[in-house]
Write a structure and sequence with these properties.
It contains 7 helices and 8 strands. The protein is α+β, with helices and mostly antiparallel strands.
């Protein structure tokens, strides 16, 4: 489930997985698949000089909240609106609480989710800027202090809430951690990617 994270520009913003059977993440009205998120983080980790690291992220954008849908209504099976509603019609919330775990095989449903989101979103490029000296990270219109950006990365590492099923992480998540831990840039100093 998406959680609230503190941004510099917009106060608390929602970020995270929104369905356990997909590997798509949301950041408010931006949507992208977790393998791409991890690849973007790996690129930052490989950067030799992140004082002014910048890149463009390709994301899906659904600026109209009605077209995003009602996450809680979809989870409870009572209101299937917008993009999220369509995803939950295809991949319903589990009936037993023990099954509520992020599925490491979510990538297998990517084609289905892409077909759905293309009906609701436009593909756009957004700026990603990491400023080591200032300690801020910009993702599109949202800016985060470094510790809160680390929490976004940690969320994906852990499998969000409710965590990866059986503690099994997809390979793209493991590669992200490996690049972060081996980074010489100093940007990721202080990040904690453990099992808590």
């Amino acid at each position: 489930m998406p959680l609230a994270f503190e941004s510099v520009t917009h106060g608390q913003v929602a970020f995270g997985f929104f369905n356990i059977d997909t590997d798509m993440l949301l950041l408010e009205h931006y949507f992208l698949f977790a393998p791409e998120f991890c690849q973007y983080i790996r690129e930052l980790a490989r950067s030799p000089e992140p004082e002014a690291f910048s890149a463009q992220w390709e994301v899906y954008d659904i600026p109209d909240r009605e077209r995003i849908g009602d996450l809680m209504g979809a989870i409870h099976g009572i209101r299937f609106t917008g993009f999220i509603g369509r995803v939950y019609q295809r991949f319903p919330f589990p009936k037993i609480p023990e099954a509520f775990k992020q599925q490491p095989e979510g990538y297998k449903n990517r084609d289905i989710v892409e077909e759905i989101i293309r009906e609701y979103a436009v593909e756009v490029q957004i700026p990603f800027v990491a400023q080591n000296g200032r300690g801020h990270v910009q993702i599109g219109e949202y800016e985060f202090q470094r510790p809160w950006f680390f929490e976004l990365v940690r969320y994906v590492w852990l499998g969000g809430y409710p965590r990866w099923r059986d503690g099994l992480r997809p390979e793209y998540v493991m590669k992200m951690k490996q690049e972060i831990m081996g980074s010489r840039s100093g940007f990721f100093n202080g990040i904690v990617l453990d099992e808590l």
